[in-house]
Design goal:
alpha/beta; Rossmann fold; 2 domains; 8-stranded mixed beta sheet; 30% helix; 22% strand; globular
């Protein structure tokens, strides 16, 4: 058995200012044997585990998915064509294969290509004919029936934070093996109830998504049912297939797949209002955090999910306005200020700088801060939390200022996440001393911080990743998508 594997993976925030180009992606691309030599987890590692069990020959083609997708905008056509064509050319050069496994995201957005993942599979189909093609997708996929019409089966991960990519890759590969060996006849159905939701509402351990996944698990108890999953979608892509989808995969029973997908879709529609509940603004969120701290509930995480460029200053300004002590912001992206400090200052110096607020109209105004530089460098560290545990991170330039009162702001060369404590430890911040931790994240951080923090407050700050989607300008979403489609605005007016 010979199976080709490939990955072309990008979550495209179309509201970000900078296009995604070949030059951006190419440094993160692997080809051929180098893919297998560097597998440490994820979908492709799951593929390999399953295929190794049956001593299949793997034909690794392309791994293009390591660039910072959420922080760059539309892929240009040249970029899309280059890597898609590489996959197709690799298949033609490889000779006969028995099947193909494709690791795609589902929320890629390409200039001039309305349904990019479906187009990738369509081109692969032209190369391999009727050989089975099975696709894995991120939970934030925006897909419709164009994808399920050309792929034999589509497997969506089931956790957010994303902790099951490897398991999903394994399950998809096992399905491919069974299909090749004649034990499985994939039949699938996709339904879209017409709901768009911000990522911050999509944590799978909490309603409403947990409720939907519980229904999926009930359906999966039936013998003919292989996989039932919900992709809540990626709201920050202004594309026609945006929004929640349900995909059911069965063994040879199309009617059952249709029934399942429709049932879960109907349930999602009944829960639609819970996908857009109001969240506190920065002022309200900081006040809530202070109230919890006075009650002895510390530390408190403030999750600023709206900041997708890293330079937002709304939370910093509000912390200063309300006189909060013992807080840390592990990254405000400002490469100009960071490089200026590197050139003109050193650890131990007291400096005054105006930081952030440069990337977009949503970023807020630059904030003037003064403090002592207590760290300057490009640290390398190992992640310790469930998200990426063991993975090496090489930071760009970061500079930590102590503002007094045990308040710390890290000025970074690029957007800097901190889904666990390693990013804090790397710049010598004592997490145990903090009352407030500000994270520019929506859900992934919860895999670690829910075990540490006494509370996690979701904040609806201004930003291109805002929870209130009505603050963003969409041109391409369906008129009837809830709650931001034109249909719903008209009904509100009436």
């Amino acid at each position: 058995m010979r199976v080709a594997i490939a990955e072309f993976f990008h979550e495209t925030c179309t509201f970000c200012p900078d296009p995604t180009t070949i030059e951006l992606l190419e440094p993160h691309v692997r080809r051929g044997q180098a893919i297998l030599d560097h597998l440490t987890g994820g979908y492709m590692h799951g593929y390999k585990q399953a295929l190794d069990e049956v001593q299949a020959e793997l034909v690794p083609l392309l791994e293009a998915g390591g660039a910072p997708g959420p922080y760059t905008s539309w892929l240009d056509t040249a970029c899309f064509d280059k890597y898609t064509d590489e996959i197709v050319a690799g298949l033609r050069e490889a000779g006969e294969v028995d099947g193909v496994l494709l690791s795609l995201h589902g929320a890629m957005a390409v200039q001039g290509v309305p349904k990019p993942e479906a187009e990738i599979v369509r081109r692969v189909r032209q190369a391999v004919g009727d050989k089975p093609i099975i696709v894995t997708l991120d939970l934030h996929a925006n897909e419709d029936a164009e994808l399920t019409d050309v792929a034999d089966a589509v497997f969506v991960i089931k956790t957010y934070p994303h902790l099951d990519t490897e398991q999903t890759g394994y399950a998809a590969a096992r399905c491919l093996i069974d299909t090749i060996q004649g034990r499985f006849q994939p039949r699938q159905a996709l339904r879209k109830p017409g709901i768009i939701s911000a990522s911050i509402y999509q944590a799978t351990d909490y309603p409403p998504v947990r409720t939907l996944l519980e229904r999926c698990r009930e359906w999966e108890k039936q013998d003919k049912v292989r996989w039932v999953a919900v992709a809540p979608g990626f709201a920050y892509a202004d594309v026609p297939d945006v929004g929640l989808s349900v995909i059911a995969v069965t063994n040879g029973d199309q009617a059952l797949a249709d029934k399942i997908a429709q049932d879960v879709s109907d349930l999602a529609w009944s829960l639609r209002e819970s996908f857009c509940q109001p969240l506190p603004n920065p002022q309200e969120a900081v006040a809530e955090a202070l109230a919890l701290i006075r009650q002895g509930q510390r530390p408190v995480v403030l999750a600023d999910g709206a900041d997708r460029t890293g330079d937002s200053t709304h939370m910093l300004q509000e912390l200063l306005n309300q006189g909060v002590k013992n807080f840390a912001i592990p990254g405000i992206a400002d490469p100009v200020v960071a490089k200026q400090l590197e050139a003109t200052a050193q650890v131990g110096d007291k400096v005054k700088v105006s930081v952030g607020g440069w990337a977009s109209e949503f970023s807020g105004a630059p904030v003037e801060i003064s403090g002592v530089i207590e760290f300057m460098g490009r640290p390398k560290y190992t992640l310790v939390g469930p998200m990426g545990k063991g993975r090496q991170v090489q930071d760009g330039l970061v500079i930590r200022l102590n503002l007094g009162y045990n308040n710390h702001v890290v000025i970074s060369e690029r957007m800097r996440g901190a889904n666990d404590s390693a990013g804090f430890t790397a710049v010598d911040i004592d997490v145990d001393s903090l009352d407030v931790v500000v994270l520019k994240d929506r859900v992934h951080h919860r895999a670690f911080w829910d075990t540490v923090a006494k509370a996690d407050i979701k904040v609806d700050a201004p930003g291109i990743g805002a929870a209130d989607l009505s603050t963003l300008h969409y041109d391409n979403v369906p008129d009837d998508i809830y709650p931001i489609g034109r249909k719903w605005h008209k009904e509100e007016v009436r």
